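Figure 2 data, in text form.
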Amino acid sequence: MNPLRDRRLYEVRRRLHSKNLDIGSGWVPITPDSVTVDIEPEKSPDFCIDVLKGLPFEDGSFDSVTCLEMLEHFKGLDQLAILSEICRVLHEGGELVVSIPYSWGPMRWAQRIVWFVRARTSQKEYYRNGHVHGHIGLIDPGELGAMLIWSGFEVVEARRILLYDYLVVARKSFGN
C-alpha cells in the first residue's frame, strides 16, 4: 500500500474517458481497459516502444491519455516531442492527465540530489542498457503549463496532490 500512489490513481481515474492510452504504464496500468505503452518489455505493455520514435496510432485515436510520473525521465525538447505526439493521438477535446514530481525552488535541488544518490544505489538496476530511469528533466509547474500550451493543449486543472505530486488535466485545443 502506497498512500501517495493510491491518491494519485484516485484523482486520475475519475478524469478518464472510455478509450484511454496509458503511456509509461509501468507494472500497473491505470485501468484494466487502458491501452498500455512502456519501453520495458518485462512490464508486459500492449505496445513495447520508445515514445520518442512516435506512437503507432492514428490521429485522434483516443478520448484520454495518461502520462504519470514519466515526463521527468526525458530532457526538455524530448518532453515537447512527447507532448506533441500525445496531442496528435487525442481527438479534439480529448484530455491528457499528466503528473510530475512537484519540482519548484529548493524542492527541485533536493530532488536532483536524491535522484543522483538513488541512481548510484537503490535505483542502479534501472541504469542498464543505456536506459536512464533517473529524473533528468525535472520541470516546474510553470514550465509544464507552457509546454502543454505550446503542444496544442489548454490547461483545465492544475494542482498539487499531497506534497510531492503535481497533477495537470489538459484538453486538446480545437484545430490542433
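Caption note: The chain has four helices and seven strands.
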